[in-house]
Amino acid sequence: MKFNYKMMFERGTKIKPEIEAVIHQGIFSDLRYIFLLFFGTRIILTLIGVLSRILLEPYHGKEYVWVYSDKLWLDIWGV
User: Fold this and answer.
1) Does 31 or 25 have the greater pLDDT score?
2) For residue 46, which of 74, 12, 14 has the smallest C-alpha distance?
């Protein structure tokens, strides 16, 4: 059974501080999880990009025209 917070606010009922803390804690833990996933995937993708560029560079020429950065880990995100 879900609790209808919207109806509670429309009636003007006050939320107990304990319940409000649980609601905010849930929101912040969700945001923390989302940011962890976002930055975690960016770090993994950066590592894969740098390793693939280093390992595969001998097999193809220096054909890229665009160089966005002198740093390899930033350059892969520019493409």
Assistant:
1) 31
2) 74
